[in-house]
Specification:
Layout: H1 4-9, H2 12-43, E1 53-54, H3 57-68, H4 70-83, E2 91-92, H5 110-116
Keywords: Cell membrane, Membrane
InterPro entries: Membr_insert_effic_factor_YidD
Subcellular location: Cell membrane
């Protein structure tokens, strides 16, 4: 059973609109990733490798921006750069996975009930 809204979304104009909307939403993260790539290409080779984390801070920033978008990705990057201090030991620090809308609540399904018995 389809609703009038579903029929509107399936039109070619709506499809183009959604594609443009997604591109506009990704634009800030894309600009930031471009700036990071410029740094990695032109500035980073001139410096000694001193990053104590894996992945490196620039790799982390690009992954965070691609995974979480501009706002949260930039926040995660700033937090990661704040950890880059002498009192932090470093090590493995991956980008946290993106949570879905219903990731916070776990509903028990029939398979869960079978496992618990």
């Amino acid at each position: 059973m389809s609703t009038p809204l579903d029929e509107q979304i399936e039109t070619p104009q709506a499809s183009r609109f959604l594609t443009v909307l997604k591109a506009v939403r990704r634009a800030p993260a894309t600009v930031l990733i471009f700036c990071i790539e410029l740094y990695r290409t032109y500035v980073s080779p001139l410096r000694m490798p001193t990053c104590r984390f894996t992945p490196t801070c620039s790799e982390y920033a690009v992954d965070a921006l691609r995974t979480h978008g501009a706002i949260k990705g930039l926040f995660l990057t700033v937090v990661r750069l704040a950890k880059c201090a002498p009192w932090h030991s470093g090590g493995w620090d991956p980008v946290p996975p993106r949570r879905g809308r219903d990731a916070g609540c776990r509903h028990r399904g029939p398979m869960d009930e079978q496992r618990s018995t």
